[in-house]
Amino acid sequence: MDPIHRKLITLEEFTIMELRQFPKATGELSGLLRDISLAAKRVNAEVNKAGLVDILGDAGWINVQGESVKKLDEYANHQFIGVLREGINCCGIGSEENKEELIFDDPMNNQSKYVMMMDPLDGSGNIDVNVSIGTIFSVYRRTTPTGSAARIEDFLQPGNRQVAAGYIIYGPSTIMVYATRRGVNGFTLDPSIGEFCLSHRQIRCPEQGRILSMNLGNMKEFSPGLKKYIDYTQEQDRETGRPYTQRYIGSMVADIHRNLTKGGIFGYPATHTRPEGKLRLLYECNPMSFIVEVAGGKATNGRERILDLKPNAIHQRSPMFIGSASMMVDLERFMP
Ligand code: P6P
Prior knowledge:
By secondary structure, the protein is α+β, with helices and mostly antiparallel strands. The chain has 2 domains: 3-200, Fructose-1,6-Bisphosphatase, Chain A, domain 1 (2-Layer Sandwich), CATH 3.30.540; 211-332, D-Maltodextrin-Binding Protein, domain 2. The protein contains 7 helices and 15 strands. An 8-stranded mixed sheet has the order 4-3-5-6-7-8-9-10, sandwiched between helices. The chain has a 5-stranded mixed sheet with strand order 12-11-13-15-14, with helices on both faces. A two-stranded antiparallel ribbon has the order 1-2. The longest helix is centred in the N-terminal third of the chain and has 21 residues, at 28-48. It is globular. The protein starts with 10 loop residues before the first helix and ends with a helix. The relative contact order is 0.13. The structure holds 6-O-phosphono-alpha-D-fructofuranose (P6P).
């Protein structure tokens, strides 16, 4: 029984319970997670009424990725940047929506030991058709001295240096999932009290699964080994006598959240059109890989562990395969 002796434990209560395990901890990470959850609640409020106010559709400009910015992802970006800049738990942010890293160069924020990478609203192309979308975040301890302004090297760290990572999925319910090395836990937003409450304790990724999440529309551009793997998944599964199920929402947070909880494998491979894949290493692949690995799954770029890749640029891309450990071992048998 949790010391709070109540059925519902809020995110803040949970992070404080975790904090008590580390008497020397400063509480800064708890504060950063609290700031993230506040911004998420504000984004959630807009996502829930996107169809009612003029926040649907395009914002009328193109982001650094060359993609048309949806009004909601512009709003989400501003919310997360605004809350974290006003907080005192983060000294800088790298965002999918901003070409350069944002340095919060003021005396209070410069004292923070954390930087954050984020995709403020992944899958935003699905907003207008009411499909689940998500925010993805990744937290690092800065490598430059506290007291000074953060610098680009604070952001270009391999994923195995992450302190925490998480996502918020805005779906039938809004769930914030975050991982530290102590585990992966999910918190569902209770609108009646405006708090994220512990709903998925110590999430484990099933060792085996039967769900394949990949855009098979790109099949012609897949490597020969990957094509052989896809054929393998169409054969009769040894245990069930049925082929794998294909589930691809086109919103990575939704696809990976389902596979994390039910088992499965998600992939966005390299193709002739996208030789580095489509997904961004720092704020999509690394955080999702950290979460899935802590939960017992695996994540590679087809050859190497995602978390060991050394980034050279904020927006660099990487192919990614991620999910149930046994399914990943099967996949690796087909990849050169
Ligand atoms: P495609 C959304 O734009 C995204 O970044 C991921 O959320 C999603 O998994 C992927 O792209 C979908 O890309 O090329 O299959 O439409």
